[in-house]
Write a structure and sequence with these properties.
By secondary structure, this protein is an alpha+beta fold. It has one domain (15-116): Orthogonal Bundle (Arc Repressor Mutant, subunit A), CATH 1.10.10. The protein has helices at 28-35, 42-46, 54-66, 88-91, 94-106, 108-116; strands at residues 40-41, 70-75, 81-86. Strands 1-3-2 form a three-stranded antiparallel sheet. The N and C termini lie far apart (46 Å).
């Protein structure tokens, strides 16, 4: 069992929202971050991604699945559940994502200044 996701994983003031280099859509990089430690249910993803609507989260997950980054697994039984996990291809994005996040943190002030201008 994986640890619960931190509800404040993505601080509203975090550079993730300002990231000019995007993987897929606005939310894809953050979804990948949420799946980094193991499979998650839809409701678990909604905790740190509280700014995303259910519809947009579904669209983003489907796009990540279509592109081979995320695997959707439906578990049947008395309690039906669906989990999302990174594929090996999706996991290969972690290091480039780390690099992009480090770059955004390094240029945070410049990004803010540019957005305000």
């Amino acid at each position: 069992m994986t640890e619960p996701l931190d509800p404040d994983m993505f601080d509203p003031l975090c550079p993730s929202g300002l990231m000019p280099i995007r993987l897929g859509d606005k939310w894809s990089g953050m979804i990948i971050r949420c799946l980094e430690q193991g499979p998650r249910r839809f409701s678990e993803l909604r905790v740190p991604l509280r700014g995303i609507s259910a519809k947009v989260l579904t669209q983003s997950l489907r796009a990540l699945e279509r592109d081979g980054f995320v695997l959707r697994t439906a578990h049947s039984g008395p309690v039906q559940r669906v989990e999302y996990a990174l594929t090996p291809l999706g996991r290969s994005l972690i290091e480039p994502l780390n690099t992009m996040c480090a770059w955004a943190e390094e240029h945070w002030e410049e990004l803010l200044d540019a957005r305000e201008a």
